[in-house]
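Q: My labmate handed me this sequence with no annotations at all. I'd like to see what the chain might look like in three dimensions before we decide whether it's worth expressing. Could you predict it?
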Amino acid sequence: MSGAKILNVTGLNNSEAKWVALDKIEYQDPSGKKRVWEMCHRTSRKGDCDAVVIFTILSATKDKPKETLLVSQFRPPVGKLTFEFPAGLIDENETAEQAAVRELKEETGYHGVVREVTPIIFSDPGLTNANMKLVVMDVDRSLEINQNVVAVPDEGEFIDVFHIPVDKLYSFLIEKANTTHAVDARLLHFAFGLNVASKI
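A: Here is what I predict for the chain of 200 residues:
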């Protein structure tokens, strides 16, 4: 997907921001000294958890290996296409499991079954209290619902879906990071862990 680019960057004050706000935190460190920290927070939080990130495992078939799904989209803060796990915000009165099933269907067209959900984890705790749960989902490619899938992303989302063999995930991301794409750190850390674990 091409054609996306940054046109201008200007500062915002909190009254202009729709999704995030800046805060100044005054706190006391372990030695008793008073300090100040700057952070941003989501203004869209509906409960104790903001979002889900989805690690999908597509079942192997006779002609396809076990794969995972990645999405690629233009991310304005980094000014380029990025590779990420499918993900999305949790709606009001929605569980993480329900959000993961919905978001996977919207972004990739696939119907998945939740295998495991982590506790709440934090994306960048030095900058923000934004948080998420990692949801592991199984996708059975033999099911009728997973044949000829069509994604239905939200308005304004321009997402390409990639099927990547799980055992090639790390090398794929390194190649893309060195050539065409930004790579979400959480995704690369996950892939690096898989790669290390396969060699132990």
